[in-house]
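Request: Give me one sample?
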Amino acid sequence: MTSDRANFFSAYNHLPYFTKEVLRVAANRLGMKAGTFNAYINRSLRDGQIIHLKRGHYVTRVFYNANKTKISYLFFMANTLLRPSYISLETALSYYGMFAEAVNTITSVTIQLPRKFENRTGLYFYRNITEKLFTDFMVVKNDFDFVIALPHKAVFDYLYYYTKGFTQNVHPHLLEDLRIDTDELSDDDKQKLSACIAVFTNVKLYL
């Protein structure tokens, strides 16, 4: 039975993730009983052949081990665990070289309720934002495509949460105090950032 179980899941070694429903369809085609199907999943989780990502979502150990060091896979996973969302805040700032401190979690922005997922691949945080501000992101083509805030929007999102919507601790030297290196921003990005901030406050930040 162990070899049968290994063969069953090996069909998914090429996928970045798969769902329980996909497995169920395959099991039904094989005429597998419900009890056997659930036993396959539970035993494979216990012995590490598959890895739990969130409820009803998995990845095989083979695929994870082959891709776990790729930042594009982790960002893709962040996009996948909660939709719609995009990488932002300190994670995006670090990606763009604007944040000096180490970032050990992957933080995203979503129009859904705030969430947190922790699994073998990492720790994922999701901050809520209004639909009006759920803008200015792009798809990065890589080994795994992912959605991330544009450089100026990553800075804006970070400031927005730090200042509670630009209602607290807003002063000209804020970016310097937060150690955000805006030298990495283009002149066009700086203009866009200033325009975004101006909607919420009259304080001019040094960029």
